[in-house]
Design a protein that fits this description.
539 residues; alpha+beta; Heat Shock Protein 90; Zincin-like
């Protein structure tokens, strides 16, 4: 006698209508979000699989014959399953789990609604129940809306994990599912991990190479080659968008839209920069440096990540102010931020791998080429350096790590000094007049030595343009001095103004336009004005 299993049938209504987010949810989102629910981080299982039922048999990607009809497509996992009650409410158990993909509690409902719109027969199965979506017409304020509902059958069976089943799938949907290995890393057996960050908890972001996905002779699956040659951005193993970058990235960021079609750009670039700054794979760094030289104006995100001019620099605490995060997130994120800072400190104790790779590619004498003065680059070559022109953002980053710019090779600049005995009587008279300013300017400090020079030149012998004066420190004696160009001694007013400016540097030790440097002259002007007024008023 055949045993029977008692079944209980019920209905669940949701607040979702078929029009909700319909422009963002098509066949691709059905496939991507459908499989996302079965990934290990979401399902709490170990395995995820896609099976195609054909001629009564369940086949994998390599076995299925794409030229023959497919009866069913099954997404399945071996996890803990989920309660049917999740189908009715906008609630998710994933809020506190940084590894999971879904965070908004809408996925199951939106997949079902999109499937109905796309004429797909979908069924959810888990634990002891199955659920099929349907719609109810409702008239609200004269508008007919189709409310998403589910018919639930509690069948007494116990299913390990959960299934999403598409019966009699359309040809277009089959094509979307066949391309899932390109869009879901867990289903891609050919990608290569180039570098992974060192976080001990949470989702470990990484740089990846998707490979060329060369077709094997026995493969019956046809993959679009144009997709294989492109790079892509993944968030927690699921592709968000294709890119034209040098590498593909799989990031663990939380700051994405519910439809997972947009990633906050600053968050995305900051994570890429962090990965590249800490990267231990020389292949990655050298490829970026070569691209920076051969295509310096490329708009790839490897270059954009190092651009601090038009966006905020990396703040490891920025996510602590993200109001979209759950209450549990800030504490974990704070710990991750501290780990990031320690990583940067450790990295700073040894020579940057970027510097090492730069020198290996372009030589120990390589410097950053000046983008403004070609003569500077020629002079650098004459004295044995190799000026390299790179992408502007990469240049600035390398300079921050200690790579010298050709325009900053100050040690190769030399002055032609004039001996005191070679000065003319008129020049000596001007210098004596200049020294009168010390009483007012130096605030009682010892007067610096005044040195006179005729020109500035490079080791190559080429004379270069120089200022009328400068404040300097003798490297051998450590004595401070003020240099005046001989041409300024032709006019006492010019000499006094030049010396006065450099005396400000001597006293304040501050650069031009600094607040302290400016205040020095404001104070001196005020003292002089007060002294003049006192004289005029007979005080």
């Amino acid at each position: 006698m055949e045993s029977t299993i008692e079944k209980t049938i019920g209905e669940i209504e949701t607040s979702i209508t078929l029009d909700y987010r319909k422009n963002a949810w098509g066949l691709e989102r059905i496939a991507l979000d459908g499989i996302s629910n079965h990934l290990p981080a979401d399902s709490k299982g170990k395995q995820v699989s896609v099976k195609f039922k054909q001629d009564g048999k369940h086949l994998g990607f390599k076995e299925v014959d794409t030229q023959k009809p497919i009866e069913e497509i099954i997404f399945e996992d071996d996890g803990s399953g989920y309660d049917a009650g999740l189908l009715s409410v906008l609630y998710t158990t994933k809020y506190a789990d940084s590894l999971s993909v879904g965070e908004f509690g809408e996925g199951l409902k939106l997949i079902a609604a999109a499937s109905i719109r796309s004429h797909l027969d979908i069924e959810y199965r888990s634990r002891n129940w199955t659920a099929k979506p349907f719609t109810k017409d409702e008239n609200i304020d004269g508008n007919v809306l189709k409310r998403l509902c589910f018919k639930i059958v509690y069948n007494g069976k116990s299913l390990n994990g959960s299934n999403t089943v598409f019966s009699r799938p359309t040809k277009r949907f089959v094509e979307e599912v066949l391309h899932l290995p390109d869009k879901v890393l867990k289903l891609n057996t050919k990608y290569k991990e180039l570098y992974c960050d060192k976080e001990d908890s949470g989702y470990r972001s990484r740089i990846i190479d998707l490979g060329n996905h060369e077709k094997e002779q026995e493969d019956k699956l046809t993959i679009d080659d144009s997709v294989d040659r492109r790079t892509a951005l993944f968030v927690k193993g699921v592709r968000i968008e294709q890119t034209n970058d040098l590498f593909s990235y799989d990031l663990g960021i939380e700051n994405i839209t519910p439809d997972r079609i947009y990633v906050h750009r600053e968050t995305f670039l900051n994570q890429i920069r962090y990965l590249l700054e800490t990267c231990s794979n020389e292949e990655v760094i050298k490829k970026i440096l070569i691209e920076a030289k051969e295509n310096p104006h490329s708009f790839c995100n490897e270059f954009n990540a190092f651009d601090n001019r038009n966006r905020k620099s990396y703040d490891p605490y920025s996510h602590l102010h993200d109001e979209s995060l759950s209450i549990e997130e800030p504490a974990r994120k704070h710990e991750e931020a501290l780990k990031h800072i320690l990583e940067i400190i450790r990295k700073g104790k040894k020579e940057s791998l970027w510097v090492k790779c730069f020198k290996e590619l372009y030589g120990e004498n390589a410097v950053i080429a000046s983008s403004y003065d070609t003569n500077t680059n020629k002079d650098a070559e004459i004295i044995g350096h190799n000026p390299i022109r790179l992408n502007d953002n990469i240049e600035r980053y390398l300079e921050s790590l200690g790579i010298v710019n050709a325009g900053d090779l100050d040690n190769d600049k030399r002055y032609e000094w004039i001996k005191p005995e070679d000065l003319t009587p008129d020049e000596i008279k001007v210098l004596e007049g200049v020294k009168r300013l010390n009483r007012l300017l130096l605030d009682g400090r010892k007067a610096p030595e005044i040195r006179v020079y005729s020109r500035m030149y490079l080791k190559s012998g080429r004379e270069v343009k120089c200022d009328d004066g400068f404040y300097g420190i003798d490297e051998s004696t450590k004595l401070e001095y003020i240099g005046l160009k001989r041409s300024t001694l032709k006019d006492s007013k010019n000499a006094e103004e030049t010396y006065g400016h450099e005396a400000g540097h001597y006293v304040t030790k501050e650069p031009d336009y600094s607040r302290k440097f400016t205040d020095f002259f404001v104070r001196k002007f005020t003292d002089l004005a007060r002294e003049k007024l006192d004289v005029e008023e007979g005080k």
